Amino acid sequence: MVTQPVTADNATALLRAIATSQDEQAFTELFSNYAPRIKSYMLRQGAEASLAEELAQEALTTVWRKASLYSPEKGSATTWIFTIARNLRIDRLRRERAWQELPQEHEEQPSNDTPPDENVSLNERAAAVNEALNSLPSDQYEVVTLSFIEGLSHSEIAERLSVPLGTVKSRMRLAYAKLKPQVSNLE
Fold first, then answer.
1. What's the chain's Rg over C-alpha atoms?
2. Own/partner pairs for 16-23, CB < 8 Å, 24+ apart?
3. pLDDT tens digit string along 112-130?
């Protein structure tokens, strides 16, 4: 069976179907899309192949059992699923490793890397913002870009575009009105 890639909206819908009616078809679709991604994430975190596969299956089994706990207001479905997987890996590491005293001179530094679940969430947000910006008429897109990307003031934008200041403000207000409903659910 060939399945289509699951989008953020599809994943939320699939989780709802699992939570409300234990929909096995929805779970199969979710599993076939997320199991390889979770396994790959576990491999990148240093897990052996068999452990990575086991953790992916355990994570998705947990998703099956706890789908009703997912809340779209708290984050994307992908972030929720990867958080479950990450927590299972941490729990496994805690159970398997005995306490080891670190040498006196050892100083741990926190990683500056963005966690993968946050990367996924950030990428989803960036795609949604780009889509929203691209839906604007060109004159509104231009003033938003000049204001937020180049950091120009309204009067500098008016000067650059050779239009009255009121026109810039009007275009900006119209752009805000169009963007707000499209990006308000990203917070």
1. 23
2. 16/67, 18/63, 18/64, 18/67, 19/67, 19/68, 19/70, 20/68
3. 777 777 877 788 888 888 8
